[in-house]
Specification:
heterodimer, A: 264 residues, mainly alpha, 12 helices, 79% helix, B: mainly alpha, 9 helices
Chain lengths: 264, 184
């Protein structure tokens, strides 16, 4: 056994870190090596003396200082924790889930726009449908105006009143009715219907041209009133022609003369 | 209470349950105080140093891995605290025109008084104070029987065998100083 081994084993022995066998072996070694034995005995004595070393009890102040320090630190950590929670929350917001959320929102918007534009096309369809209804109505008016029954022709004229924007064909048909229809009521209704579209030059022209063709006093007077209301100067000439007719009713004559004066 | 080992408690402290440090403090305060006191510090400084150790434990709690014994970790910190304290007080004494030897003298005086009053025990303390710091430290660490040589080795940073050799030689030197004091 060299010196270092002895030092290690001696420490193991006095600190109780040896098995019974090892102890016996070490004791045998000491017995056969008196110089080591002396050294070991001295060592053992000193070790026991050190064992007797003690220290006074720490004061209660030390405890107080420690626990107040701990309390303070715990408070600080708590505050720190709440700020950490906030940071955690922010980082959660910034996680990929947000991206998915935004993506979903985007898809939602996209769908919304798509549905909305589909609505637009619905509106277009509605407009187209309206257009088609107008077309059908115009055809109906034209058909009704050609019917032999005065009643149906009247119905056709009243249908013509429902148009927002009237077609040229319908205007021509109405003017034709005004000039040629056999029934005075139908013709009167045609004048009333045409009154709705006096903004159209074709209508005004047609009305002026129809003045000489009118034989019924009531129609002559209605047209005269209309022309005065419209201040249509082009109507003066046809009215003058009408005045030259010998069979003209005197009341109508007076009315027309008065109208011509008021137009001029 | 012992069902909660030091390691478990310290890991709880690490995870934010700071109250558990109170328990660890109660378990180790006496040993730490004794460690500083027997290294030659007066009781008031020893108490301050114990305080400093636990402040460091709090500060570095996140670096605690849970591997090895808690006592070894704690006493490594205590060693550093003691080292820092003496470095600082040496610096301060230089700036105040007082040498480190004066402070040592005071400590010795403090121990000398006890020597007269308490005989052998005081003589031993005095002998201890005359030992070089490293040897005194290793002896005091080994004096706490609960601390195994493997733990002491970790605290002072050497192999277990080397720790035993160091303790042995420190003990031998102490014996020589003690004998000399006895003769004187």
């Amino acid at each position: 056994m060299n010196k270092e081994q002895f030092e290690i084993q001696a420490m193991d022995f006095i600190s109780g870190n040896m098995s019974e066998n090892e102890k016996r072996e070490f004791e045998n070694f000491l017995d056969s090596n008196p110089e080591y034995k002396t050294e070991f005995m001295e060592l053992s004595d000193t070790w026991k003396e050190i064992d007797a070393l003690d220290a006074p009890r720490p004061s209660e102040e030390m405890d107080e200082t420690f626990f107040s320090m701990l309390k303070e630190e715990a408070g600080r950590t708590k505050r720190k924790n709440s700020s950490e929670v906030l940071m955690k929350w922010i980082s959660t917001i910034l996680k990929p889930q947000l991206a998915y959320g935004v993506l979903l929102l985007g898809i939602g918007f996209g769908l919304g726009f798509y549905i909305n534009s589909a609505n637009d096309s619905d509106r277009t369809t509605a407009i187209v449908l309206n257009q088609e209804t107008e077309d059908v109505r115009q055809k109906l008016v034209l058909t009704l105006l050609e019917q032999p029954s005065a009643n149906q022709r009247l119905q056709g004229v009243s249908e013509a009143n429902k148009f927002d924007d009237v077609d040229e064909t319908v205007i021509k048909a109405l003017l034709q009715t005004l000039n040629r229809d056999s029934n005075v009521n139908v013709r009167l209704a045609a004048v009333e219907s045409l009154t709705n579209y006096v903004g159209n030059p074709l209508v005004r022209q047609g009305l002026v041209q129809s003045i000489p063709y009118q034989e019924s006093p009531i129609l002559q007077i209605t047209l005269a009133n209309l022309m005065v209301a419209l201040q249509e100067k082009a109507s003066i000439e046809p009215f003058k022609q009408l005045l030259q007719e010998k069979e003209l009713d005197t009341t109508v004559q007076k009315k027309i003369k008065k109208s011509i004066e008021s137009i001029i | 209470m012992q069902s909660l080992t030091d390691n478990t408690l310290m890991l709880k402290v690490k995870n934010g349950d700071l109250d558990k440090l109170g328990l660890l403090y109660e378990r180790h305060k006496k040993r730490l105080f004794g460690f500083f006191y027997n290294l030659g510090n007066n009781p008031s400084i020893s108490e301050d140093l114990v305080q400093n150790v636990f402040m460091r434990v709090l500060k570095y709690r996140r670096s605690y891995s849970g591997e090895g014994s808690f006592a070894a970790w704690l006493f490594s910190m205590a060693r550093n605290v003691h080292y820092d304290h003496h470095k600082r007080s040496a610096k301060e004494s230089i700036s105040h025109g007082v040498s480190a030897d004066d402070i040592k003298g005071e400590t010795e005086d403090h121990l000398n008084e006890e020597y007269h009053n308490e005989g052998n025990k005081a003589l031993l303390k005095h002998a201890l104070s005359l030992l070089p710091h490293e040897k005194r430290e290793v002896l005091i660490l080994s004096k706490y029987r609960e601390m195994k040589f493997s733990e002491i080795a970790k605290v002072i940073g050497c192999s277990e065998g080397a720790a035993k050799v160091r303790v042995h030689r420190a003990l031998k030197d102490l014996r020589i100083i003690f004998s000399q004091l006895e003769i004187a």
